[in-house]
Specification:
Strand order of the largest sheet: 1-2-3-5-4
Strand content: 5-15%
Radius of gyration: 31 Å
Number of helices: 10
Order of helices and strands: EHEHHEHEEHHHHHH
Low-confidence stretches: none
Bound molecules: zinc ion
Helix content: 40-55%
Number of domains: 2
Length: 295
């Protein structure tokens, strides 16, 4: 089943990140989506230019021009992924967009237009409930709350991602408990990686979705491919039985047809052999009967 992630933490096959502020990358991604028509498109754009922290930093920054440029590039990026999401949804396929709950990006026109669609919803999930924790240092293992907004047109995926932390005063309601660690720059960088449980939740949501026509199509294609593989393996196993292939070849069949029909030919040969054996046995029995009759 086709599905892929295009974000800044994933490298394109040319080894560069999918930075959609570049025209060439936008064209390539759109082509990929149109060719492969993925069942689920997942976008988790860089959030550093839209975080609430960044909004504070902007007012203090020594170089507000550079920050504004970075923000503009991020808007171009988001406008682009928003257009891909709409294309997915219009084509009867699915998307999942992930961004910090309190990021200002939710208000940019292209994203809020997607949000206003009748088939799209946004849920709030806290990533501490999906295993987000500090990965290094003395606070290793402590929960990181990371309130996240998930926007999707797949209701089952939304249901799988809306678990919130119910802990109060900084304590965490996850199974292991603990106190939330504030999202420092390093923790934020690490938390940009999806915790495994979150990926599992997404997959679980997808696996419980009613099969739409193109999933069935993909499954049937996979079934046909498996059958073709089995047939090829069968032919390879029977290269020690050259007779069937030789007969087909002598009859003027192409190699492709031989691959196609060899299994049938082999079983026909086997049937013919079995019949000959049966005839031989009959003949033998007949001879015995005749011999008995003569006695
Ligand atoms: Zn928590």
């Amino acid at each position: 089943m086709a599905g892929f992630a295009l974000d800044l933490t994933v490298l394109d096959d040319d080894g560069l990140p999918w930075d959609f502020s570049e025209e060439a990358k936008r064209q390539k991604a759109r082509r990929l989506v149109r060719e492969q028509r993925p069942y689920m498109l997942i976008g988790s754009p860089s959030c550093k230019d839209f975080s609430t922290w960044q909004a504070l930093n902007m007012s203090k920054s020594k170089n507000p021009q550079a920050m504004l440029r970075a923000k503009t590039a991020s808007i171009v990026h988001l406008d682009f992924v928003a257009s891909l999401y709409e294309e997915q949804a219009d084509g009867g396929r699915y998307f999942l967009h992930e961004h910090p709950l309190n990021a200002t990006s939710w208000e940019i026109p292209s994203i809020s237009r997607v949000l206003r669609r009748g088939d799209v919803e946004r849920v709030h999930g806290d990533q501490c409930q999906y295993g987000a924790s500090v990965r290094h240092g003395p606070l290793k293992g402590s929960p990181v709350k990371k309130p996240t907004g998930f926007m999707t047109n797949a209701p089952r995926v939304a249901r799988a991602l809306e678990t919130r932390c119910t802990g109060v005063d900084g304590s965490c309601s996850r199974v292991g408990g603990g106190s939330h660690v504030l999202c420092s720059s390093r923790v934020a960088r690490e938390a940009a990686l999806y915790p495994r449980e979150l990926c599992r939740a997404v997959l679980k949501g997808i696996s419980t979705m009613p099969h739409s026509s193109h999933v069935i199509e993909a499954m049937e294609l996979a079934k046909r491919e498996r059958a073709a593989r089995r047939r090829r393996a069968f032919v390879e196993r029977h290269t020690s039985l050259p007779s069937a292939a030789a007969i087909l070849r002598a009859e003027g069949h192409s190699q492709e047809d031989i691959v196609e029909f060899l299994p049938t030919a082999v079983s026909l040969l086997a049937a013919r052999r079995a019949q000959k054996r049966a005839e031989a046995i009959d003949k033998h029995v007949g001879r015995i009967k005749t011999a008995r009759g003569a006695l």
